[in-house]
TrEMBL record:
Organism: Moryella indoligenes
Cross-referenced Pfam families: ABC_sub_bind
Designated name of the protein: ABC transport system substrate-binding protein
Listed Gene3D superfamilies: 3.40.50.2300
Organism phylogeny: Bacteria, Bacillati, Bacillota, Clostridia, Lachnospirales
Keywords per UniProt: Signal
Superkingdom in the source lineage: Bacteria
Region named Disordered: 28-58
Listed Polar residues bias regions: 43-56
SUPFAM superfamilies: Periplasmic binding protein-like I
Signal peptide: 1-20
Length: 350
């Protein structure tokens, strides 16, 4: 189903009721996922405190699903995951109202928003990125919760196992091809001996990928220097301190680094230090290149899972965490950064 423009959707909704997912952005930031439709309105409550079923129906009496979306922070990768989720719902013709919330990278805001979405008794909640997923999963064992942009849901204590989640949580993993990305680094920069691994030490998934990068670098005959950060205001100082110690920098799919990638690129590029990234959005923000996954497709996978849960009675407990197939990964590079560093990467592009 094609997305309607906002103006057209509002007119259609006034005449015919909800025909597709509407989107309302509230909370600590806007989302890039803006689907046309009616604005979110709170569900009315009956005298028992339960949602009034009539508030969850369209003008024709058909079910209108109430879906909450909590995105941890706004940056291109997570925005794309959000867009993919909304697109999958629209294309399936799901009638729903979306409440879009963005925590702006604030963990306490995640907890507050998660509590609100659960108390509003949403039919389903999508949590984008590990901190958001942990906040939502910690608030409910009943509402179906989909997670995306989470590298290892089992390691993050979101599911019993990635193959058999066993509870109310499932979704898609953004496990990036770390080994292949380090191999790409060595291929493009064969003289590299020391790699700085930049990551947020407060994110379990980032720690996991940093260890994977260390192992991959050692396999390629390179040594690593850990460059951990705990807050975004540390990025410039940490990267600046590394320029005399490393030949290149690698950063995995890390939310804090992704949100501050322009700062990373500014310092690294000024000092002629190539940055190999975990995903495309980082490259768009000034990193050199990546061999990475498509976050839009990750979000789309969650949208398809949502359709199965809402309309087919599928159980999250029985739905394995899904991964993007290797053939969906692709090489991308920043032409301006490559030129600045004196590198010709046209031969690597497919």
């Amino acid at each position: 189903m094609k997305k309607m423009s906002l103006a057209l959707a509002l007119v259609a909704a006034a005449v015919l009721g909800v025909t597709a997912c509407g989107s309302a952005s509230t909370g600590g930031g806007s989302s890039a996922a803006e689907a046309g439709g009616v604005a979110q309105t709170p569900a009315a409550e009956s005298s028992t405190g339960e949602p009034d079923s009539s508030a969850a129906q369209g003008a024709d009496g058909e079910k209108v699903y109430q879906i909450g979306v909590l995105q941890y922070v706004q940056h291109p990768a997570l925005d794309k995951a959000n867009e993919g989720f909304v697109a999958a719902l629209d294309e399936a013709g799901i009638r729903c109202e979306l409440e879009q919330q963005n925590a702006a990278g604030d963990q306490s805001a995640c907890q507050t928003i998660a509590t609100k979405l659960v108390n509003d008794r949403k039919d389903l909640i999508l949590a984008i990125a590990t901190p958001a997923a942990q906040a939502v999963a910690g608030q409910t064992t009943e509402i179906p919760v989909l997670v995306t942009a989470v590298t290892d849901p089992a390691d993050a204590k979101l599911v019993v196992s990635n193959d058999a989640p066993g509870g109310n949580v499932t979704g898609s993993s953004d496990l990036t091809p770390v080994k292949e990305q380090i191999g790409l680094l060595k291929q493009i920069l064969p003289e590299t001996q020391t790699v700085g691994v930049l990551y947020c030490s407060a994110e379990s998934n980032s720690i996991l990928q940093a260890e994977m990068a260390k192992a991959a670098c050692e396999a390629e005959g390179m040594t690593t220097v850990k460059l951990p950060i705990t807050a975004s205001n540390e990025i410039q100082t940490v990267v600046q301190s590394a320029v005399s110690k490393v030949d290149a920098i690698y950063t995995p799919t890390d939310n804090m680094v992704a949100a501050g990638m322009t700062t990373v690129a500014m310092v690294a590029n000024d000092n002629k230090i190539p940055v190999i990234c975990g995903e495309d959005g980082m490259v768009e923000s000034g990193g050199l290149c990546t061999y990475g996954i498509d976050y839009y497709q990750l979000g789309y996978i969650c949208g398809e899972q949502a359709v199965k849960i809402l309309t087919e009675g599928a159980k999250p407990a029985e739905m394995p965490i899904e991964y993007l197939p290797a053939e969906k990964c692709s090489f991308s590079y920043n032409e301006d950064t490559a030129a600045l560093l004196g590198l010709d990467l046209t031969g690597f592009a497919k």
